[in-house]
Amino acid sequence: MMMMLNIFICILVGISWNLRNGKSVQKIHIPFKRFWCQRVLSKSFWNREQQRLDFIYNPIISSELSGDPGIKLPDWLNDTRPLDPCEPDHRVTTQIVDYNSLPERFQDFLLHMRCRNYTMLINQPNLCDDQPFLLLAVKSLIPHFDRRQAIRESWGRAGVLANRTVVTVFLLGNTFSGDHFPDLLQMVGHEAVLHQDLLQWDYRDTFFNLTLKEVLFLEWFSKHCPQAQYVLKGDDDVFVNTLRIIDYLEGLSEVKARDLFMGDVISNAAPHRDPKLKYFIPESVFVGQYPAYAGGGGYLYSGDLALRLYYISHQVVLYPIDDVYTGMCLKKLGLTPEKHTGFKTFDIEEKYRHSSCIYRNLMLVHSRTPQDILKIWQWIVHPEPDCQ
Predict the structure, then answer these.
(1) What is the pLDDT of residues 120-158, one digit of tens each?
(2) Which pathway does UniProt place it in (predicted)?
(3) How far, in Å, CA of 118 to CA of 131, rounded?
(4) For 360, which DSSP code?
(5) What pLDDT is attached to residue 37?
């Protein structure tokens, strides 16, 4: 990056000098092949794939390529990847040295990490016809009927709340026989007809595919709900104080609202290298620090930013941890998530968990059972008289 910046500065200096001396400015050719042959490729698969996208989407290089189709791409861009991004990418089995020792679902993610095109099984194309002030997008799994119903009867109640239109949608993937889930598709179909708040895609719904759920939702949002002013995205085991969130959003300036991305922010984090941990990432897949990111239990952002996140996501290789991936996309946009103490994705102190008053000033708490969610919501809508 520093070498590229220096070249760009030299070009600007040269143009400025020519203008001052009355010389005409001719087209300047970037030393394309010579410059990019000096690229040092990462030994880690994800980083190497990202280097490729960074090259393709670099505005200077893209301009040069479009202006001179005869330019030959650098050798390091040539590979044997399938032309169809949704075909299994078997390169990973040889390019990731410890591939065979990774968990099966991690292997599945790596084989299909280039695919973002999955059939939509259940859609709600008219869900946002009333132009919602707040869209509540909840990540859920097919068997979690009780969680979804508790949310519908509490913080995710769709309609007019505090004089603002609120819409709720649940995001689902699919189950496969190899994952040992019962066949519940008929029940889900009935639920979708009854409540008209489910979105489902035909991909394997696993922890490592939560990133896929993220980008598929953003695509759906760009097509069917771009007029929503704000989005609260969270898990189906969180409690959300919707009234508190609406009150906060109404006080935002137009400038701050545009780039709003708020949650329980984690900074200076790095990949876990212990294979026993849920968030394990081997060095053969990724090296480096994580950008600042908001914990995936729940975060709040503007509809305007949701659209920008969708478009920039095409320039960021899918990563198997969804909240880290969203942080990567924000960084690509030049933004940093804002930390708010009202988001408690790692819960609150145990001594406060059964205090009705404590939840009035919180925005989101993780995690709670369906029974807890229903009880806490009653505390919110019918607060104790002595709660300040």
Answers:
(1) 999 999 999 999 999 999 999 999 999 999 999 999 999
(2) Protein modification; protein glycosylation
(3) 26
(4) G
(5) 45
Contacts 24+ apart (CB under 8 A), 218-223: 218/306, 218/309, 218/310, 218/313, 219/116, 219/310, 220/120, 220/123, 221/135, 221/137, 221/303, 221/306, 221/307, 221/310, 222/306, 222/307, 222/310, 222/311
How many other C-beta atoms are found inside a 10 Å radius of the C-beta of residue 69?
6
- Residues 308-329: pLDDT tens digits? 999 999 999 999 999 999 999 9
Which structure tokens are listed for 357? Answer: 């008053």
Question: Among 168, 109, 176, which residue's Cα sits nearest to residue 140?
Answer: 168
- Residue 385 has a pLDDT of 80
Q: What are phi and psi of 189, to 5 degrees?
A: -60, -40
Q: Under a CB-based contact definition with an 8 Å cutoff, are residues 121 and 202 in contact?
A: yes
Residue 39 has pLDDT above 80, yes or no: no
* Diameter over CA atoms, the chain: 79
What's at 150, amino acid-wise?
A: A
- pLDDT above 50 for 29: no
Contact, 280 vs 242, CB < 8 A? Answer: no
Q: What's the whole-model pTM score?
A: 0.88
Q: How many CB atoms lie within 10 A of CB 324?
A: 20
Q: Which of 249, 290, 283 is nearest to 267 (CA)?
A: 290
- Residues 75-98 as b/e (b if ≥16 CB within 10 A, e otherwise) read eeeeeeeeeeeeeebeebeebbee
For the chain, list the domains and their CATH numbers: 2-77 (no CATH), 120-381 (3.90.550.50)
**What is the C-alpha to C-alpha distance for residues 93 and 111, in angstroms, rounded to an integer?**
8
Task: Report the Cα–Cα distance between both ends of the chain, in Å, rounded.
Answer: 53
Which residues on adjacent β-strands are paired with residue 263? Answer: 299, 339
45-55 pLDDT tens trace: 999 999 999 99
Residue reference for tokens 């009705």: 356
Q: Which residues contact 232 (CB under 8 A, 6 or more apart)?
A: 134, 135, 136, 137, 240, 242, 245, 298, 299, 300, 364
Which string of b and e fits 213-244 if b means at least 16 CB within 10 Å?
bbbbbbbbbeebbeebbbbbbbbbbbbbbbbb
- Indicate the pLDDT class of residue 68, thresholds 50, 70 and 90: low
